[in-house]
Amino acid sequence: MIDTQNYIQTVALRDVKCYAFHGYYPEEQLTGIYFSVDVVVTFTPNTDTENLERTVNYEILNNIILGEMKNTRKMLETVVKSILDRVVDNYPFIHTAEVGIKKLNPPMPGEIGHSFVQLSYRSANS
Ligand SMILES: Nc1nc2c(c(=O)[nH]1)N=C([C@H](O)[C@@H](O)CO)CN2
């Protein structure tokens, strides 16, 4: 018999595209730019795998991302922390979580595909 306590579940949203106004420079906060957000969480799965209330609902992850992307910040570090904190608050049973944000074609000299800032969390009892 397999002990389900030994399973690790991953739930993620990848490449959530948003137009937003985060940027260190005032002109970035006026014009806005496209971002892409990734959230990945892991946890021990519930035995009832047909119950949306007993997992991490990725609709909730999407709501958190879209809500925090509307709060204009200077630094991407602040954005990833605010998303990560809300994910962990909502789902205290999570073992690990990663939130990454890409700023697409950031306004800098040269041709930059994207910049990327990520923050990770590991629970003390995982
Ligand atoms: N580590 C970071 N570096 C930079 C950020 C940031 O959010 N985190 N932001 C900027 C400017 O907003 C940039 O997008 C201008 O192109 C610069 N460096």
UniProtKB/TrEMBL annotation:
Q: Where, if anywhere, are coiled coils annotated? A: none
Q: Where is the Dihydroneopterin aldolase/epimerase domain?
A: 11-121
Which key words are in the record?
Isomerase, Lyase
What Pfam families does the annotation carry?
FolB (PF02152)
Q: InterPro entries under this entry?
A: FolB_dom, GTP-CH-I_C/QueF
What are the GO MF terms of this UniProt record? Answer: dihydroneopterin aldolase activity; isomerase activity
EC assignment: the record states 4.1.2.25, 5.1.99.8
NCBIfam families in UniProt:
folB_dom
Protein known as: Dihydroneopterin aldolase
What is the organism of origin for this protein?
A: Pedobacter panaciterrae
